[in-house]
Amino acid sequence: MKTAIVQHAIRWNELEWNLQHITSLLDKQPGADLYVLAETFATGFLAEGSAEQARVQSQQILNWMQQQSRRLDAAIAGSLATVDGKGLLRNRLYFIRPDGSHDYYDKRHLFGYAGETDEYVAGERRVVTEWRGVRFLLQVCYDLRFPVFSRNRGDYDAIIYVANWPASRREVWQTLLKARALENQCFVVGVNIVGRDNACEYQGDSVVVNAYGRAIASCTNGVVEVAMAELDMAELQRFRMKFPVLEDGDVFKMDGV
């Protein structure tokens, strides 16, 4: 599977500019099966979110994702601020397919340090979705720091992490992406933004890591660009059969998951 990591800039709460910016990047890299965008890719990270604003914007963003997915004949993944059926704010990662079908995952580990826990509600479901022969575990930013939640139960082949991860903690991002790939014997797709917002600077470091912990595609530090990786499932299965680490893992259960 050809997977494109879209390392883009975000203008905080400038929806139209962000969507136009990302559309131009998608056009420069046709032919992927999956395009992965960042966390809250269309607005920037709105820790102090407005439920009504999120309700209006999220529908426009979803419409755009569906249009791009059909146009490119590819799946598109990225998170946005939205509201659930009870009107509660969620940081929701959507995985959109060309036929209009989709899955979504609500961020479980909210970033209290930046105030996300004050207005958003944490997700409870662990979500794995399948696309063109690859099973993806969906995760958002701060989830990367919590390996128990992402532990491979033999039910996925790749993890997607979408993020707004500050440059001041680059080494954590880089190290943990490799760790998740190694310990779960899977591909890891990590997409981060570049530029600045009201609080932080972002350097990107977007990457696709294979089960050996090696980068098979990466974006230039601090540069807006798209990189492509081939997720070779045959190679992954050969490695898992030759070195069956997952079979020796501990068995445990998590409450509510």
Describe the structure.
With 257 residues, the protein is of the alpha/beta class. It has five helices and 14 strands. The strands form three sheets. A six-stranded mixed β-sheet has the order 5-4-3-2-1-14, covered by helices on one side. The chain has a six-stranded mixed β-sheet with strand order 6-7-8-9-12-13, covered by helices on one side. A two-stranded antiparallel sheet has the order 10-11. Strand 12 (207-209) and strand 13 form a beta hairpin. The relative contact order is 0.16.
How much of the residues is beta strand, in percent?
A: 25-35%
**Structural classification:** alpha/beta
What is the N-to-C order of secondary-structure elements (H for helix, E for strand)? EHEHEEEHEEEHEEEEEEH
Roughly how much helix do the residues carry, as a percent range?
25-40%
Overall geometry: globular
Largest sheet: 6 strands, mixed
| Annotation field: number of helices | 5
Mean of all residue-level pLDDT scores:
94
Strand arrangement in the largest pleated sheet: 5-4-3-2-1-14
User: How many whole angstroms does the radius of gyration measure?
Assistant: 17 Å
Number of strands: 14
- N-end to C-end Cα span: 29 Å
Question: Residue ranges: pLDDT <50 for 5 or more in a row?
Answer: none
Write the topology of this structure.
Elements: E1 2-7, H1 15-28, E2 34-36, H2 51-72, E3 75-83, E4 89-96, E5 102-106, H3 116-119, E6 128-131, E7 134-140, E8 158-162, H4 170-184, E9 187-191, E10 194-196, E11 201-203, E12 207-209, E13 215-218, E14 225-230, H5 233-242
Parallel strand pairs: 1-2, 2-3, 7-8, 8-9
Antiparallel strand pairs: 1-14, 3-4, 4-5, 6-7, 9-12, 10-11, 12-13
